[in-house]
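[step 3/7] fold_predict: job queued, chain A
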Amino acid sequence: MPQPVVDIFIPCFVDQLFPDTAWNMVKLLEALGCTVRYNANQTCCGQPAFNAGFQKECRQISDKFLEDFSREGADYIVAPSASCVGMVRNAYADLYVASSQLVKYRTVERKVLELTEFLVDVLQVKSIPGAKLPAKVTYHDSCSALRECGIKEGPRKLLGMVEGLQLIEMRETETCCGFGGTFAAKFEAISTAMGEQKVENALSTGAEYIVSTDTSCLMHLEAYIKKNHKPIKVLHIADVLTQGW
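[step 4/7] structure written:
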């Protein structure tokens, strides 16, 4: 199989709050034989503006996204965030349905993949040499991964390749964690209660870590965990797959 050329998209949350996750994704992709490229001009996919109802402003950002990721030579565009991938695949379709840039959008949209689906569906990874985490973990299905991208079994397959890792499913794993972007700001009490429920379900498994594809969910859960001194931690799946290296 020819070495795939991958343009990486690093979302705002990852860039500002979880930069190690971005580096771990790069290390993982390179170790699996990919040529990784990073366009330093990239910014945001526009999701915050879109979700807040500012479609005109979002369109300015999404136009830039299409320009940044229309470079020649890339086979795929990979991001460590199902939320942002879902934005490009789904919301962009509404933004460009009657646009002169529809063809450009469709060209980019076909290349955009979340990290785990790229590893499982495209690279068809069967093992990750050196990955080791002797711990019990539970997996949180983010709304974007599950409902927007159809990601369910792939992350679990990858976690099964990590030496020493024991995956224990929690109750209501498909239930929202309560973040939801601006939802957490507009409906703080409901958002906090949902986060509490998710953390308590995770704790009931005896897991040491909550793992997910989305740093936004993990940030929300980590805030509740730290404030209430709960004995559990969070890890993005890219960080799990490079443990032990």
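[step 5/7] annotate
The longest strand covers residues 5-8.
Residues 12 and 44 are 6 Å apart (CA to CA).
exit 0
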